[in-house]
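Human: I would love a firmer grasp of how sequence relates to backbone shape in proteins. Take your time, and here it is.
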Amino acid sequence: MGIDYRVLQEAAKWFAVLQSGSASRAEHQAWSAWLEQPEHARAWARIERISGQFQPLAADPVGRSAGGLLHSRRSNRRQALKMLSVLCGGTALSLASGHIPWRQWTADERTAVGEVRDVKLADGSNLWLNTDTALDIAFDTKTRRLTLYRGELLIEAPASRRARPLLVTSREGRLYSEQAARFSVRQDDGRTRVSVFAGIVDIQLDGFGITSIPAGQQTAFGSRGVEPLEAASAEHQAWTTGVLLADNQRLEDFLAELSRYRHGYLGCDPRIADLRVVGHFPLPIPSGCWTRWPPRCRCVSSDVWPGGSVSSRRSSALAFDPIRTRIKNIRICSSLSSNWPGIGRNPSRRTGSFMRSSALPFTPNRSRTLALGIRAALLCLPLAAVVPAVAQAQAATQQAVRSYDIPAGALSSALSRFAGEAGVLLSVDGSLVQGLESNGLKGQYGIDEGFAALLQGSGLQAVRDGQGNYSLERRSAQSDAVELQPMTVEGFALGNALGSMEGYNATHSSVATKTSMPLAETSQTVSVVTRQQIEDQGSRSIAQAVRYTPGLMSTPYGATTRYDYVAMRGITDGSVDNLYLDGQKLLGDSGTYSSLQVDPYFIERIDILKGPSSVLYGRSLPGGLVAMTSKKPQKEASRQLQFSYGSNDYKQAAFDFTGPLADERIAYRLVGVAKDADNQVDGIEEQRYAVMPSVSIDFTDDTRLTLLAMLQRDPESGYHGGLSADGTVTSHNGQRISRSFFEGDEDYEKFERDQQMIGYQLEHRFNDVVSARQNFQYLDSTVDSGQVYQYGYATADELVRYYTGADEALHAWTIDNQLQFLFDTGALSHTLVTGLDYQRRKAKVSYDAGYGLPTINPYTGVVGAGAPVFYHQYDETRELEQTGLYVQDLISLGNWRFSLGMRQDWVDVSFDHTDDASYGDQDDRAKLEQFTGRVGVLYAFDNGLSPYASYSESFNPNATAAYNEVSPGVYDIALLDATEGEQYEVGLKYQPLGTDDLYTISYFDLKQSNLANKDSNENFYRAVGELTSKGVEVEARLRPIEQVNLIASYTYMDVEYSKDFTGAAGVNNRGNTPNAVARNMASLWTDYTFDQGPLAGLQVGGGARYFGKSWADAENTLRIPSYTLYDAMLGYDLSRVGLRGVGVRLNLNNLTDEKYVAACNSLSQCYYGEERNVMATVTYDF
């Protein structure tokens, strides 16, 4: 005769109370009264029999002292920090203790210890991340690649579309799937385990060929090959529902698995390590913490039966119910406070916000010793098993019909698997199912029907209580409802952000904070141009790549391709000096011709930060900066060849090879490009030969060194000239100058540029609190240039021309040392970044000039007579040295995000002006000490809305000197004070939950002061000018369906000189708008990829760009008309017709061949925009 389950539970509780040694006399009397009933006596006898196997433990002093056991095994996970220094000049970082893989804190996706969550990938795949997991996601048009560095995944992927297989890479090998599949992957030490629940997955292991794993099978692989296949275990997917499944598992192994979900030590005495555990157990995390967007958790202590607690680190507790062995969370949320440092934090919102948890204090008088808790927990193992799911699931949901495929076998295993897949709580007396077999379950079943089919002929039934939980009973027995202890979870579900860069939607950026932050939680406007956008739009320069970004003017000098000009938020001065590569400022000299250019084929992504940014970067322009990230080595081998041909005989060949070397710790990347083209301007050519090699070395799991280089030679660098407004903006005697007209002289035209850059990025993790990075770049550049240019009309129809030439050599190096700390102060979570950076630049320039050149008629091309005179103008040595010390604290408090930053800079600028027949030898030096700050605040609402406000500052030394006339014909050349900038910005960001779409609207009030200015009654310049820019930017980046990408933007700007500003003699431009600034700008781009039907593989796209009216001069005497340009793209994946890895694309810019003036620098210098051009590209990935 069986014993009622409820009675056994009561007996076990009394056993725990009496064995605790602290039972009162009243408790002894109550137990005696309870024992008088016969059934109670039988239950007590059974408990005593089972408890006999623990008698040796009861006599053990360690068993009687939980504190002693725990204290003796307790380890201090956070060792003392050992940081000697981080030195400039390329010195190595000091190393210290700690062992958390470097990959984990730089991965696109991470979960904390104790966090389980799921995300939806851009291709529609569902991805579940188990506790303490780190992976990278790299989707492109050819592959869907996941790289697992640590932890465990469950992947539910649709079939490959457009021949884009799913690749999952671990340390031991690769998994490959083209069909719809559901499988789990776990990275263990020295081996990778994979379990396939649907579809077929191939293992690609170097030296061992390909092994296919069908549905229902699992295996593991490592350096010795692939292990034999066996039946897939349900435990490898049960964790996605918050379940830890044990099927005849050793107790020690069970506790080891459980300990993955929390910090501190959790174990058992070796003498009971081999006891077996069967059942499902709730994971020790609040139910809300394994949602798609992990909430901020606050746990309320559960009721714990006396003596039923097992202490672990941080005074957290696991309570073991003695019969049902249910593991109930008391304060487990505290374990979620461990976040990975590095570029990013653990995601609680859009995969990048700060996840921190608090808990109510643990009640000491409810706890008992560790040994007693283990005894009580083990006591129930032969008696019971429990399967948790979502405790508050509705009955209607639980009865949903779904498909099951459970093989025949032990009834206990079949019930465990069924309950786990159905997502329900099942309480079982183990003696009821001992020795019973099941025929399995296959087909469509509701939960009640499934239980009935599995239990058919066993004499047992599954009874559901009012909350949807189940218990197993004999058909003649009745049992009371099983209730979960109450738990309160307060949290927000604010969406997630993928590290994936597929499509046009990036979700994170480090440009604003030097640490990975979700764009939706950054209190400043940031736009990102992804690699796919660069390719789809056929961008041939960085300036072209950012043309669909709000607030930017990327053609202030028209169709020139010599430099990448990007004017931001109305600040056009120095627009060539705001480019950054891999976190470091490109140290060209905007006061010379030695400004650098990076080919867009070398670039993985472009992050655009709007507004002042000196707090982290030192000297910079107030409008913002353009941060390029170069392509880096990958552990997954890939190769690409690309060939392009287009208008003006444009020819380009490029290659991109990457992968691991013989030593798996080392990966390489080699990217190269060669191009040759004519120009829309007659007689002008462009040539480039460039290569970018890089190598990454993982010295340890915590230390990585990446070596970088860029070698580029531009024998010809295109056109960089301007024409008079009279004849371009307006007609000249009824005529307009042709866009192809070349006002120079081919005999003197040259621009040859060589630039070599080398550098490294060294990253090290000391422990889970402190990490460090060092970023170094060295640049060597030479420029040999000569140009004949026009400067207005000499006669009614002829342009006067002059010559300028330069021979330049520039050497520069820069280093940035950073330390990052992750810590909490009470309820505040901090990411503290502090750094010391240094940059030094030296340029030597020799200038030549000429006059008396023949005039030219731009309408007929006729060249007049002339008597050229060429002369050496002067030599100059220009030096800049900057040292900066900065600190930034990113603070999270609930849904609040705060950003505080400050910086102190010491800048030394000098020039030495020699061999000048006109002004004589002169020199000047300016030393500057500048303090800048930044503060930002953002509130992340649960519905995806994030309003924010920020204030930021900038400064920038004047690049050129002022020529001040101190007496008639006598000039003093002097450096001016640095320009300064400050900006107030408020905005609203919205990221719909569960998507990577991002909508941003911002209002900015920007001021640039200390502009070089000369009052009308003075003969010298002073840094007294001021410019203000106020406006609104709107940007939307969304993917409404998988096949569609869409980018839309609008900008309104009101820019004016807000103080007296003299341009032309005697004219005060106060209140005027600077040239090349439009009040209104807008853009729209979208593309569609067909994935079904006869057009499958076809991609079509198009866009429109509007630039409003602007002024041709600072005096605002002539307006340039607005213009609208249309672009188009057509692509096709030839894999659809058997050419695997081959794709073709056709890009058309300025589709309607609009003839327009993009901007003017003055009435004498105006610049045509690009004419209609076409480019065809063939890409082969293999």
Observations:
- Residues 5-19 form the longest helix (15 residues).
- The first strand starts at residue 109 and ends at 110.
